[in-house]
Amino acid sequence: MRVRRVHVIGAAVAATLVVGAPLVVDTVMDDRPVVGLRLEGASRWQVWTDASGTAARRAQDRAADTLTLRAGTLTRTPTLDDLGLVDGTRDLRTALLAAGRDGSAWQDALAQTRAAWGGERVTPPPDRLDPARLSVAVDAIADDVAVPPVDATLTLSGDVVRVRDDVPGIRLDTPGARRAIADAVRAGRRSAHLPTRAVPAAVTEHDLAAVEASVHAAVARPLVLGAGDARVTVPRARVFAALPVTVSGGTAVVVPDAAALAPEIAEVSAQAERLPALRIVMAGTVVAPGADGVHVDAQAAAEAVLAELRARTAGGGADVVPLPVTTLPAPVQEATAGAFAGDHAVHLTFDDGPGAHTEAILDVLAAKGAHATFYVLGERAREHPETVRRILAEGHRLGNHTTTHPDLTTLAPEQAASEIASTQALLTEITGVRPTAFRPPYGAVNDAVRAAAAAEHLSVDLWTLDTQDWRGPGAAAVCERVLSGAQPGSVVLLHVLRQGTVDALPGIIDGLRARGLAVD
């Protein structure tokens, strides 16, 4: 009986020690968690011996965890630290120290007893995200998610104008995305779907439907720009480009833009424009009819094109748009008899040498046994004295064409006289022969010019047939102009400036001789 009593007492003492010892330790060492407390991811020994280190390691591991985010077709996997996770070390350490010590004495005793037997577990405090850092992270995701809308537009496919549909854009619902991320982190989920919103296009298919037919009708018809005799057909794509559409408040309006057709306006203007040709009258008889010039005013032309584009979008308009032109009257020059009076040959005269193609022209004349008159410039004669001497040596006439080719009628009388006199002196110095013929540049002559020429004993020579070869029309055109216009006594104006003149010369000489006309 005594032995049994001893065993019971021993068991009671042992139980008291087993249960009571941890309680005593927990009471004495209150700067540590209660003995045996459990925390996921850490041993009970780590929790009891190093609460701060355990909490710090757990916070670091949590910050490195990732959260898979999906928004539309985009997937991103940032860490929780990237999303602004607040360091939970302090909160977890506080929770570890408070477990088993935050109730009544009886409740704490029970909790500490459970902990000692491994039955007490600490749940970490909920994760928190820093709002400012979370906003930065979500804004970065929003930039990647964003797809701008594509406005509806009119397109030209072949001959048909169609509406290309609008395509809505996509944007991230940033407030909703922040909530979704915060909820997923608090709940410990590994992924979250972020909400997106459609972004409507500023211009929709419905907006453009009202103008589609009118633009198509305006483009489908041919558009020809006319100025005088010139014509330029505008390609449909260019007409379409000149009919942009603007949309305001859902209403589409065609706003014609004539500037878009500036290249075509410039092209037809270049074809139509023509400088007036000098009309020469001698003793009351028109010896060179000349021709009026044509000018196209760019502003007036643009206004005419704009009016046509507006008319087309309203269902009217014309296929050919006449651009306004201005006639430039031909200047009239009264001529003196000059060096060719009373002669019935056709006289070929060449201005603006020497240099350029002068030598080649002399070669052709030599090969054909023909002669001509060369009106030379002083500044070029100074550079090519050998060519000047060759002109005289091969039996051609040498004429004065001033020093620098100015319009003498625009100069003071003394300046005009100097242009003539200085060239006269230079040619005399080069050749030893004083010229007797003079042709004023542009055929421009007045009383002061005539007086200056008379002072140098020079005739004032103009022409009766202007080939316009300086424009470079080509050999065939130059030859045809001479052969169709030459008469006995004609004075033909040519220049040494173009290869086309050289190429035309053999045909001119042969053609004139075939008509029984002498060439001199």
Automatic annotation (TrEMBL):
<dbReference type="GO" id="GO:0005975">
    <property type="term" value="P:carbohydrate metabolic process"/>
</dbReference>
<dbReference type="Pfam" id="PF01522">
    <property type="entry name" value="Polysacc_deac_1"/>
</dbReference>
<dbReference type="GO" id="GO:0016020">
    <property type="term" value="C:membrane"/>
</dbReference>
<dbReference type="InterPro" id="IPR011330">
    <property type="entry name" value="Glyco_hydro/deAcase_b/a-brl"/>
</dbReference>
<dbReference type="GO" id="GO:0046872">
    <property type="term" value="F:metal ion binding"/>
</dbReference>
<feature type="domain" description="NodB homology">
    <location>
        <begin position="344"/>
        <end position="520"/>
    </location>
</feature>
<dbReference type="InterPro" id="IPR002509">
    <property type="entry name" value="NODB_dom"/>
</dbReference>
<dbReference type="GO" id="GO:0016810">
    <property type="term" value="F:hydrolase activity, acting on carbon-nitrogen (but not peptide) bonds"/>
</dbReference>
<dbReference type="Pfam" id="PF12229">
    <property type="entry name" value="PG_binding_4"/>
</dbReference>
<keyword id="KW-0378">Hydrolase</keyword>
<dbReference type="InterPro" id="IPR050248">
    <property type="entry name" value="Polysacc_deacetylase_ArnD"/>
</dbReference>
<dbReference type="InterPro" id="IPR022029">
    <property type="entry name" value="YoaR-like_PG-bd"/>
</dbReference>
<keyword id="KW-0479">Metal-binding</keyword>
<protein>
    <recommendedName>
        <fullName>NodB homology domain-containing protein</fullName>
    </recommendedName>
</protein>
